[in-house]
Amino acid sequence: MARLVRVGGAQLGPIQPEDTRAQAVDRMIALLRQAAGHGCNLVVFPELALTTFFPRRIMQDPDEANVYCETTMPTPETKPLFDEAARLGIGFYLGYAELAEEAGRKLRYNTAILVNGEGQIVGKYRKVHLPGRAEPDPTGVTKNYEQRYFTPGNLGFPVFKAFGGVMGMALCNDRRWPETYRVMALQGVEMVMLGYNTGAVRWAAEGNRIVQMPSHLEMFHNHLSMQAGAYQNSTWVIGVAKAGCEDGEELMGGSCIIAPSGEIVALARTLGDELIVADCDLDAVKWGRETYFRFDVNRRIEHYGLIASQRGVIPPE
Ligand code: CDV
């Protein structure tokens, strides 16, 4: 018997700085209801899904970012999402900015939670790989200051027994790092959910010139990293974007559901609010793990050689 989870990837179009959380939640509820019409058990929303992607802008005092953060979940503004999802019996993944208090210090994390079909939070993840800069970029090309606002996640890459399988979470830049998937795969992950906010166009400073990077590479690398993560770890990957022109930045879409074979089985066509749906058989992870990727048999870390810092630099001949 297949272990089917019918997953909805709920891509969101842009959320502008002036948009309220209540407006974002209304849009998410509309997508939830669409997902219910398709018989989905689980819906995946993007990274920082309640507000505009505020880390694209530099604020003099990083604490100004606290207005974009949630200190608890659900909040009064997100409670309608939790209530509607529970009424429909749909679980969800939600990315948001968290303001936590730890050892008397206030820390911001880029966070995702997993909520079950009864509206209970069953998992939490805090983004490990924070891109961008902490200090102003004199060239002006940087569109990401996550290092300024967030503390790297301190929860590792945990996995959670839910939806009849083993579920994991990641956020945006995490998808480009093979460790993200492997650490979860070694714990038996069967589905990795990942929200992202990624510019469709990237600029780089070359000497005193600002040049545009080849734009086709942005989407290529988006899918390449998630498809490779899925294939090399034999896991489902659900990648969900915030897309379209947000606060002056073009965000890529390309939300997709990727099978453990590495194949994309559902792909968004627009840059707006859009639901993609696929039946994900969690048993499909077995084939890869019993053939090419038998971690316990074929993964021979004792033969990988010492890491460079242990070996020392090889002197020139
Ligand atoms: N939100 C992100 O993590 N964005 C990064 C960009 C800045 C490279 C990404 O990896 O898509």
Small ligands present? 3-methyl-2-ureido-butyric acid
Number of domains: 1
Helix content: 10-25%
Classify the beta-strand content into a percent band: 25-35%
Instruction: Report the CATH C-level class.
Output: Alpha Beta
What's the end-to-end separation, in Å?
A: 60 Å
- CATH architectural category: 4-Layer Sandwich
Q: Which class do the helix and strand fractions yield?
A: alpha/beta
Structure description:
- The structure is a single chain.
- By secondary structure, this protein is of the alpha/beta class.
- It has a single domain, classed as Nitrilase/N-carbamoyl-D-aminoacid amidohydrolase.
- Helix content is about 20%, strand content about 30%.
- The strands form four sheets. Strands 1, 2, 3, 4, 5, 6 and 17 form a seven-stranded mixed sheet that branches. Strands 7-8-9-12-15-16 form a six-stranded mixed sheet, covered by helices on one side.
- Helix 1 links the parallel strand 1 and strand 2.
- Helix 1 packs parallel to helix 2 and helix 4 runs parallel beside helix 5.
- The N and C termini lie far apart (about 60 Å).
- The site of 3-methyl-2-ureido-butyric acid (CDV) has 9 residues, from strand 9.
Could you give a quick summary of the protein structure above?
By secondary structure, this protein is of the alpha/beta class.
Question: What's the arrangement of secondary structure elements?
Answer:
Elements: E1 4-11, H1 21-37, E2 42-44, E3 69-70, H2 79-88, E4 91-102, E5 105-115, E6 121-126, H3 146-149, E7 159-162, E8 165-171, H4 178-185, E9 191-197, E10 203-206, E11 209-212, H5 216-233, E12 236-242, E13 244-246, E14 249-251, E15 256-258, E16 264-267, E17 274-281, H6 285-290, H7 295-298, H8 308-311
Parallel strand pairs: 1-2, 2-4, 3-4, 8-9, 9-12
Antiparallel strand pairs: 1-17, 4-5, 5-6, 7-8, 10-11, 12-15, 13-14, 15-16
Helix pairs in contact: 1-2, 4-5
The structure holds 3-methyl-2-ureido-butyric acid.
